[in-house]
């Protein structure tokens, strides 16, 4: 069906900039954009539907390219403890931290995990998100990781949002493998990844490269196993220390390296050469009260594409708003509103390997867009919270969340 959407201004985000079209019109045919431009240049045609967008600013649908949306339990109590002076180490020694989330996730049924994740995902969708990546990593054994990945697939099937599934089995060391990290990595490479990939549950593979998680050598084994299975890789890197995991990710043409507070200029050069996207996570930076800023100057200098994401997770970024991440990126990382919007549209799409079809409003791309009743695109990074008036279109069809 051919549909006309008019009486709007468009920030198409082509080439990662606003690329504004004033007094614009968009023609969609089925799930794709057939034409976009100034309304005065609109070609004559018969349209099955015509929508007046009442002067809205239209952007691509927002893309949250790094989340841990599926998990059991709740760690707000730990948040309160930390603010009362209890250290993370003390909480972990008492069975808290990621170990508590793993226990709760393993104990939860698939339906229970789906129900709780659905609520969180709906919050993000109400914020204009039309595509999202969700990682596993709170199961840490084959059956539990499978359960999480099945929930991720189900979310994409039952809600009007595009969902990419990432296996993050190399997230932390499970208790049954205490002091045996190499054995756990071998289990991931030889048993978990082949089984989960064969079941069609995995779109990409991630790992946590950090002194309190896995070494670069261990991560490389995971990357090699993923490569043999034909799966792209991503990496949590340089969040707490500099292990040059982002350079390792670049050597394996990773889709992205994420966090990156402690990355070096050499890492940025490597990422630029490989096309690996830098995914910055201001929610975790804020929530943990970090002071080490990502090397913004080096990323810009070497032309590394910068994406942003919520990092929605129970321990370090319980964020339910991508728009809030835009403001945090501008305020904490000194990004411009234009850079921030590119970070949750075109560059986020590239971080998921979706930039040929998503992330900007161009002919031939998927018709995912949001018509915002705002004064200018910068308003998306300006307002703190709230529910901005909007109309959300996914695959050429208006959706209500």
TrEMBL record:
Cofactor: Zn(2+); Fe(3+)
Binding site for 4-imidazolone-5-propanoate: 75, 138, 171, 239, 316
GO terms of molecular function: imidazolonepropionase activity; iron ion binding; zinc ion binding
GO biological process: L-histidine catabolic process to glutamate and formamide; L-histidine catabolic process to glutamate and formate
Domain Amidohydrolase-related: residue ranges: 57-393
The protein's Enzyme Commission number: 3.5.2.7
Residues that bind Zn(2+): 66, 68, 236, 311
Pathway: Amino-acid degradation; L-histidine degradation into L-glutamate; N-formimidoyl-L-glutamate from L-histidine: step 3/3
Binding-site residues, Fe(3+): 66, 68, 236, 311
Entry binding sites for N-formimidoyl-L-glutamate: 138, 313, 315
Name of the featured protein: Imidazolonepropionase
Organism: Pseudomonas piscis
GN (gene name): hutI
């Amino acid at each position: 069906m051919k549909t006309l959407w008019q009486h709007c201004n468009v920030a198409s985000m082509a080439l990662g900039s606003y690329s504004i079209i004033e007094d614009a019109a968009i023609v969609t045919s089925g799930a794709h954009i057939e034409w976009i431009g100034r309304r005065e240049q609109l070609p004559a045609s018969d349209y099955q539907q015509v929508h007046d967008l009442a002067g809205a600013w239209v952007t691509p649908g927002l893309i949250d390219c790094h989340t841990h949306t599926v998990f059991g339990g709740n760690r707000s109590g730990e948040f309160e403890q930390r603010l009362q002076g209890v250290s993370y180490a003390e909480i972990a020694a008492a069975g808290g931290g990621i170990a508590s989330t793993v226990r709760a996730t393993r104990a939860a049924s698939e339906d229970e995990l789906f129900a709780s994740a659905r609520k969180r995902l709906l919050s993000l969708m109400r914020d204009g998100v039309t595509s999202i990546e969700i990682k596993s990593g709170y199961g840490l054994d084959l059956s539990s990781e499978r359960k999480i990945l099945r929930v991720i697939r189900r979310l994409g099937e039952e809600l009007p949002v595009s969902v990419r599934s990432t296996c993050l089995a190399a997230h932390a060391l499970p208790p049954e493998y205490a002091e045996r990290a190499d054995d756990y990595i071998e289990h991931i490479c030889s048993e978990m990844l082949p089984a989960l990939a064969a079941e069609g549950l995995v779109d990409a593979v991630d790992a946590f490269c950090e002194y309190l998680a896995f070494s670069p050598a261990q991560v490389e084994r995971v990357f090699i196993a993923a490569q043999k299975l034909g799966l792209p890789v991503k990496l949590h890197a340089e969040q707490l220390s500099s292990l040059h995991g982002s350079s390792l990710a670049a050597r394996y043409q990773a889709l992205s390296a994420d966090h990156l507070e402690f990355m070096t200029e050499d890492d940025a050069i490597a990422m630029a050469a490989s096309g690996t996207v830098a995914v910055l996570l201001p929610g975790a930076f804020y929530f943990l009260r970090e002071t080490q800023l990502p090397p913004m100057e080096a990323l810009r200098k070497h032309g590394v594409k910068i994406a942003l994401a919520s990092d929605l997770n129970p321990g370090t970024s319980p964020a339910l708003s991508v728009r809030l991440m835009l403001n945090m990126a501008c305020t904490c990382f000194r990004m411009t509103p234009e850079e921030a919007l590119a970070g949750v549209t075109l560059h986020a799409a590239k971080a998921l390997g979706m930039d040929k079809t998503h992330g900007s409003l161009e002919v031939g791309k998927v018709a995912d867009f949001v018509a915002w009743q705002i004064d200018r695109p910068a308003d998306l990074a300006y307002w703190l919270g709230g529910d901005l008036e909007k109309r959300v279109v996914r695959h050429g069809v208006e959706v209500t969340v």
